[in-house]
Amino acid sequence: MIIYNNVDYMKSSVNSTPEDGSPKVEGAFAALKRDILSGRLAPDAPLRLMALSTLYGVGYTPLREALSRLESAGLAVLSPNRGYRVAPVSLEELEDLEQARTVVETALLEAAIAHGDLAWEAGIVAAHHRLSRAARGLQESSAGVPDWMEAHDAFHQALVAAAQSAWLKSFQRQVSEQLRRHHQALLFHPDLGKPARQGGHDRETRKLLSRALALEHHTQLMEAALARDTARARHLMRAHVQFTLTVYRSVAGAPDGRAKKGIP
Question: What secondary structure, in 3-state letters, does 177-188 show?
Answer without folding.
Answer: HHHHHHHHHHHH
